Automatic annotation (TrEMBL):
Entry keyword annotation includes Signal: no
Necessary cofactors: Mg(2+)
InterPro entries: G_OBG (IPR031167), GTP-bd (IPR006073), GTP-bd_Obg/CgtA (IPR014100), GTP-bd_prot_GTP1/OBG_C_sf (IPR036346), GTP1-OBG_CS (IPR006074), GTP1_OBG_dom (IPR006169), GTP1_OBG_dom_sf (IPR036726), OBG_GTPase (IPR045086)
Protein's UniProt name: GTPase Obg
Domain OCT: 341-423
Domain OBG-type G residue range list: 159-330
Length: 423
């Protein structure tokens, strides 16, 4: 099993600020508040997409942010909401909180979505603060910040494609040519004792996992050699790529090799015969390979199996092979097989905190709610200051300060700003 991981940062857009505006039309002598609300910030949304096979694209981009909401305008016009950003991930992606390691969501169904970082709310314009006793509010509300989350995407991949063939036919070399994998390669049998895996990137949001299955031998289905271990890996792949030595320089008959491998696969699990497959005629840099290629074509072209002549040693035909595998995969129905892992209830709460404390003899008021309130206040406007004081009372902040022992005229520090306390 291959575990693909990526760490990314997600941030919802900030809500737009409410506007302070006044009616200025002719024949409207009384004027009045006329500021509109700010737009909501855009969210970051994860979406499971069956066209994506790996998390490779997240190595190139690690930060995703929703668009900020627009500020409100005059004439009670609302600001435009910020656009959401859709982040596509492979089906079967597990999303974890980086700090706690807990699973937030398992995106195991095609087109499943999850809001991972919600955008902030737009602030209310001054028109919303008008009351019978406060008919001309000279203040508006600031938009709130969007959620920020550091998350881990984890994909436990069963390889999309399995390279099968006898030992020493060039599977490991082909893997190293088409992917970034660096398998140990040597000219002797049973070089590979466990599958080597590599991610093959075709383009943006186009990649797949290729497994070099250790060389199979006759009798593998009965457990000869490491047969059962190897065949279990083949069983999990979606497409089979048979690598044949077209040169026959080791005394091998490529056509017979193909049938021997298929016999072992079918004895182990008859369903393996239903998998889409193609043939790679390797070692085409050796002159004798032309005869072997003719034999391979004569045997398999009529059966509808595509044949790709390559030379892993020189790179000939490798690119064509890579794209052929991708096309075969793209036209193969996916059977989603994820895994069991406990998903915890998402504990992330949009923080609107209020902290009231006494520290080193100073009275402190902090928290995101108070920060946002301060951004909304115009201290040269009487109504705005009165709204600020009323909100502090309504939220119980004044009462908490009194319980801590604050006296009339003492200083209180609210988010770093010093105020004189009066009841």
């Amino acid at each position: 099993m291959f575990i693909d991981k990526a760490k990314i940062f997600t941030k919802g857009g900030k809500g737009g600020n409410g506007a302070v505006a006044w009616r200025r039309e002719k024949f409207e002598p009384s004027g009045g508040p006329f500021g509109g609300d700010g737009g909501n910030g855009g969210s970051v949304i994860l979406k499971a997409d069956d066209g994506i096979r790996t998390l490779m694209d997240f190595r190139y981009k690690r930060s995703y942010s929703g668009q900020n909401g627009e500020d409100g305008r005059s004439k009670k016009q609302f600001g435009k909401d910020g656009s959401d950003i859709i982040v596509k991930v492979p089906v079967g992606t597990l999303v974890k909180d980086e700090k706690t390691g807990k699973v937030i969501v398992d995106l195991k169904e095609k087109d499943q979505t999850y809001v991972i970082a919600k955008g902030g709310k737009g602030g209310r314009g001054n028109a919303k603060f008008a009351t019978p006793t406060r008919q001309a509010p000279g203040f508006a509300e600031a938009g709130t910040k969007g959620q920020e989350r550091h998350i881990v995407l984890e994909l436990k991949l069963l390889a999309d494609v399995g390279l099968v063939g006898f030992p020493n036919v060039g599977k490991s070399t082909i893997l190293s040519m088409v992917s970034a994998a660096k398998p140990k390669i040597a000219n002797y049998h049973f070089t590979t004792l466990k599958p080597n895996l590599g991610v093959v990137r075709i383009g943006e949001e186009k990649s797949f996992v290729l497994a070099d299955i250790p060389g199979l031998i006759e009798g593998a289905s009965e457990g000869i050699g490491l047969g059962h271990s190897f065949l279990r890996h083949v069983e999990r792949t979606r497409v089979l790529v048979h690598v044949l030595d077209a040169s026959g320089i080791e005394g091998r008959d490529p056509v017979r090799d193909f049938h021997t491998i298929m016999d072992e696969l079918l004895k182990y699990n008859p369903k393996l015969g239903d998998k889409p497959q193609l043939i790679v005629a390797n070692k085409m840099d050796i002159p004798e390979s032309e005869i072997g290629l003719d034999e391979i074509k004569k045997e398999f072209e009529s059966k509808g199996i595509e044949i790709y002549p390559v030379s892993a040693a020189t790179g000939q035909g490798i690119n064509e092979l890579k794209y052929a595998i991708w096309n075969l995969l793209s036209n193969t129905e996916v059977e989603y097989d994820t895994f069991d892992e406990e998903v915890y209830e998402d504990e992330y709460i949009e923080e609107q905190t209020i902290i009231v404390k006494k520290e080193n003899g100073q009275y402190l008021v902090e928290g995101t709610f108070v920060e946002n309130l301060l951004e909304s206040i115009y201290f040269d406007d009487v109504d705005s200051v009165r709204y600020f004081q009323d909100t502090l009372r309504r939220k119980g902040i004044v009462e908490e300060l009194e319980q801590l022992g604050i006296q009339e005229g003492e200083s209180v520090f609210i988010c770093g700003y010093e105020f004189e306390f009066f009841h």
